[in-house]
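[retry 2/3] UDP-2,3-diacylglucosamine pyrophosphatase: previous attempt timed out, resubmitting with same input.
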Amino acid sequence: MPRKLGIIAGGGTLPARLVRACRDAGRPVFVLALKDHCDAAALGSDVDQAWIRMGEAGTGIRLLHEAGVSDLVMAGGVDRPTIAGLRPDWRTARFFARLGFKALGDDSLLSAVTRELEAEGFCIVGVHDVLPDLSPETGILGRHTPDESARADIARAVEVVRALGALDVGQGAVVQQGIVLGVEAVEGTDRLLARCRALARPGPGGVLVKLCKPGQETRVDLPTVGPDTISNAAAAGLRGVAVHAGRSLLVDREATIAAADAAGLFLLAIDPEVAA
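[retry 2/3] UDP-2,3-diacylglucosamine pyrophosphatase: success.
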């Protein structure tokens, strides 16, 4: 019998897609859904599930063991809470006390969470291990292609994102005509694009680049782009979006590519070693 997959579910459609993939493969699945993040309607009520607050690590680990989970994947968006808002249980508080200043960076925190779950006996897998078709190959993914000025902006954005990533800050940047309009931090990509909409300059529009951080734990928190990203990029006046080939996720791949085509935006998967 296939190993049972546990899904720690945040927002968006990814958790439900993982559930469907497990069902199609005849694989048993259990969802540990995060309150105030996971979309109950998208997830549905016909899947084995339990709900916890983010600060209830002790309860969550117990529920995963009781459900017989062997493999574990983290999927879906999560807004990073404050410690006060987290209301940690004893297990969570002990974890943060041990982690200390390393909890300041997203990747440091997620890597520590991964190690903690592995110490509990779970095998951590990536979304792309369950849904390999979500990870784009190098090249143009739609009908539109970047011109030379857009490629220059992509190269500049790659430099910026790699510098940010080395400091464990963010995964994205918007560059227009060589000028950095915005970088992604705790607010996330959608709010970055909303800020850049007011900062756009006359002339050819900018580009959004999203990359993995150097040394990032690729089983969790891969750069993710979906139809909403394309819509927000178009509203910000951008000409296109470039993502990390083989190390990012296109949620609803066909719909994302179709949205880019309809909006007149290029969608490109790049090797940052070549694009920089």
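[retry 2/3] UDP-2,3-diacylglucosamine pyrophosphatase: The longest strand covers residues 29-34.
[retry 2/3] clearing retry counter.
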